[in-house]
Write a structure and sequence with these properties.
There is one protein chain. The radius of gyration is 21 Å and the shape is globular. The chain has a five-stranded antiparallel sheet, sandwiched between helices. It starts with 11 loop residues before the first helix and ends with a helix. It is 55% helix and 7% strand. α1 runs antiparallel to α2, α2 runs parallel beside α8 and α10 packs antiparallel against α11. β1 and β2 form a beta hairpin. It is α+β, with helices and mostly antiparallel strands and 298 residues long.
């Protein structure tokens, strides 16, 4: 079976502008999730120009405009989104979507109405937010879903004094989830049993973007010929205000694998200086990798 050819990257000049805007948005007081995800999409797909970025935002606005005016309870909101996005427009996911880079690019998900759980959840959240719904993302281990109602830990109330909260699975067309359903999703994705309260904590926009980029990196890691995709995903993640220091090591290793030995060696040496403060043995191991990379130039 032939797999579709992944989208081609933008020009270096376009990429530099996209990254500047991505870093600026990520460091803003209230990062815009849809804007960040669309900038990720533009970095992954050079055909997404300014008109395309604007059209994607307009599509999210249009979908929000088709929702009923303030349906009422969290359950009513969840059902309205399910009816509109899952049933009327057919947004959902299937296993084959995990094999496509487009499943992690928001503009492509809006066009295809297919994608990974987290990107479909971004569609649900952004459409619901525009319509005024009490909505938030829930980063369950191995499977992202969406919550409606007061965010856990926040005061709020219904007539009974306890705010109703509803979870939905956009990957399954917006199916409403019981507690047992959510536990089954976690068990199916990770093999772990049980659902702890912290798993239901709302995911901040930058946490969502980090997870999107992690998915892109995982997609590229299984495809050595797509190392350029893994590289831009790492480099975007490094522009986020908070990121794992080990990403720099990952970037350095990838540069070496791509044959950029001098640049990779320099990055390895810089990472070793940081690691050496807490683990000199690990730092020396990384310096050894740098020496091997430099030797490949001879």
């Amino acid at each position: 079976m032939r797999h579709p050819r992944p989208p081609q990257p933008p020009s270096p000049e376009r990429s530099a502008e996209l990254r500047r805007r991505f870093a600026e948005e990520a460091r803003s007081e209230r990062p815009d999730l849809s804007a960040l995800c669309l900038l990720v999409g533009a970095e992954g797909d050079g055909s997404l120009d300014e008109a395309g970025l604007g059209a994607a935002q307009v599509e999210l606005d249009r979908l929000a405009g088709e929702l009923p005016f303030r349906p009422g309870t969290p359950r009513a909101w969840a059902e309205a989104l399910r009816d509109l996005l899952g049933e009327r427009y057919g947004f959902h996911g299937v296993g084959a979507d995990y094999r496509r880079l487009e499943s992690s690019l928001l503009h492509a998900v809006l066009r295809r109405r297919r994608g990974l759980p987290i990107l479909l959840s971004v569609v649900w959240m952004e459409v619901a937010r525009r319509a005024g719904a009490p909505v938030y993302g829930v980063a369950l281990p191995g499977h992202f879903v969406v919550g409606f109602g007061a965010e856990p830990g926040l005061a709020g109330g219904s007539a009974g004094g306890v705010e109703e909260r509803v979870l939905v699975d956009p990957f399954d067309g917006g199916r409403l989830l019981s507690g047992d359903d959510a536990e089954a999703l976690v068990a199916g994705a990770t093999g772990a049993a049980g659902l702890t309260p912290s798993m239901l904590d709302p995911a901040a926009p930058l946490d969502v973007v980090t997870r999107v980029l992690n998915n892109v990196r995982a997609w590229a890691a299984g495809r050595p010929e797509q190392s350029a995709v893994g590289l831009w995903a790492i480099e975007l993640a490094l522009l986020l205000p908070s990121h794992a220091a080990r990403l720099r090591y990952e970037r350095a290793r990838l540069l070496v694998e791509r044959g950029e030995f001098l640049a990779g060696a320099g990055e390895l040496e810089a990472y070793a200086e940081v690691v050496g403060v807490v683990d000199e043995a690990d730092a020396e191991r990384v310096r050894g990798e740098a020496r091997v990379a430099r030797a490949m130039l001879n």
